[in-house]
Amino acid sequence: MSPTATLVVVDGYDASTYGERFAEVYDDWYGDVSDIEACTKRLAALSAAHGGGPVLELGIGSGRLALPLARLGVEVHGIDASASMVERLRAKPGGESVTVTIGDMADLALADPPPFSVVFVAFNTLFNLATDADQRRCLRRVTEVLAPGGVLVVEAFVPRDDVAAGAEASVAPRRITADEVVLTVSRVDRAAQTITGQHVHLRESGIRLRPWHLRYLTPAQLDALAADAGLELEVRSAGWRGEPFTDASEVHVSTYHRANVRPVREHPPADPR
Ligand SMILES: C[S@@+](CC[C@H](N)C(=O)[O-])C[C@H]1O[C@@H](n2cnc3c(N)ncnc32)[C@H](O)[C@@H]1O
Predict the structure, then answer these.
(1) How much is the average pLDDT of 143-168?
(2) Cβ(210) – ligand 1 distance below 6 Å
(3) Which of 51, 72, 80, 89 could form a disulfide with 63 if both were Cys (CB 3.0 to 4.6 A apart)?
(4) Dist. CA 80–CA 95, nearest whole Å
């Protein structure tokens, strides 16, 4: 972790903790958590529409999205705080073709980065930055590494009213098999807009704690943060296929361009079937 990183909001938890504790189970638990084909096709189309340059993924993890994207012919770069997650990526076919930096995406310290046509952060990963300051710093750095006509794409959940107003703490079974139980223990701090949790993984061989900590934003709050970084919302959909975003949407995929640049009209990208 870099000397400027400030992520000490939960005792014993820093930028690398999530990845280090989840790497062993990540692909098994989350390998098919979202529509990889729609996501990677959309990102490849965005890259083509915005100069055809390289694409950077923040929190690239085990390459769930980055490797299929690279297989579409896109030059993919990534950053991740967890060496164990990146080891998983490297061990997969094509893993050597992706340029990965181990580091904190709040700093986004990349050695000699090219101008990126697309920077993306998927599956709520922006919320892994646990303070307003880190989220702000990250988006400002994104603006600096984007090509003049490039775009930032953020995929994140929309905080539901019951997260904003309701249950403060919960324990729920996540996975029950003959050989293991995973209990999700979580606590919401509504004032700070954080959720702190543990997947408590119980097996015959012992207990493994898999902690996570999120600072969630509403789409409007994300737009304000992006504006602070010099970015403006271009289009928001409810998924990677360009599904219409409504008040009932649980997820958003939001594309931002520099505030002073006229958007390239490639949207809506695909039919939502
Ligand atoms: C939910 S996983 C997503 C991985 C991948 N993007 C995907 O969609 O499968 C979050 C990833 O972000 C990484 N991460 C968390 N906080 C980070 C930070 N501050 N800087 C860089 N990477 C971080 C974790 O190590 C993990 O690999």
Answers:
(1) 86
(2) no
(3) 89
(4) 14
